Amino acid sequence: MSSILPHSARGPEGRTPIVFLHGFAGSRETWLGQQIALETRRRTIAFDLPGHGAALDWPEIGHAGISAKAVIQSLSAMGIERFHLAGHSMGGATAVLVAMKLAEAERVASLTLLAPGGFGDEINQRLLRRFAVAVAEHEIHALLEQFFGYERPVPLEIARHMAAERRDPRVTAALARIVEAILDGERQKSFDLSLLGGLPHPVRLIWGNQDRVLPTRQSRRAPGTVGVHVFAGVGHMPHLEVPREVTRILVETCAAE
């Protein structure tokens, strides 16, 4: 098996690339809108994290620490020495771990976190456990409603695509294993957020005030040096609910290089 995670790359070479990391039960495809919006200006790389998408059979799957190890290995194998990081939910936790591990090497140019895991111990564990093993399109769609703001449309094509993937029983088996790895009983494992404030690069935090997976109040725990953006009427999927605004924040965060 390749030492590089499956990925999609778009945009011109030259400037420091943006690396996208998806959330639990997602895939690199969740970032397609941002990749298309940026493809004339910036190189972007979206990975499938271990146990997700085309990385279903990655040798080791589990918590964000395992994903961080795979991302660092992949970027090194690709010869990418410096990069911006953008991560959502579990991918946000993964991005934090990558940044903390590589802080001394200064390989990370910036960090943009969307409703990231690890900012507190509260988490909607019942929803995640049910979502991990759901296989019927109607059930997946009903559960997806809780990931979006109350008045935000839930794209049926996402549920349809997930249901098709989950015809392979290995998919739900992997997700069930991963969800137990990121949870600690009915809670989630959290970071020492004081370390986030000491990172030598810009850090932005994006959250929706109607997030029903990870409560928005966790954003208040961010150190004062972290830029915080909270969107009204948005749930746990800001990159899908307010994609233009998220892309704008990414462009501003990455503008220096």
What does this structure look like?
With 257 residues, the protein is α/β, with parallel strands linked by helices. The chain has a single domain (7-122, 189-253), classed as Alpha/Beta hydrolase fold, catalytic domain (Rossmann fold), CATH 3.40.50. Helices cover 35% and strands 16% of the residues. The protein has 9 helices and 9 strands. The protein has helices at residues 32-38, 64-77, 90-101, 125-133, 137-144, 156-165, 169-182, 238-241, 243-253, and strands spanning 7-10, 18-21, 44-47, 83-88, 108-114, 183-184, 187-188, 203-208, 227-231. Strands 1-3-2-4-5-8-9 form a 7-stranded mixed sheet, sandwiched between helices. Helix 1 (32-38) crosses helix 9 and helix 5 packs across helix 6 (156-165). The two termini are 33 Å apart. The model has no long low-confidence stretch (mean pLDDT 95). It comes from Prosthecodimorpha staleyi. This is Alpha/beta fold hydrolase. One of its GO terms (molecular function) is monoacylglycerol lipase activity. Residues 18-247 form the AB hydrolase-1 domain. Keywords: Hydrolase.
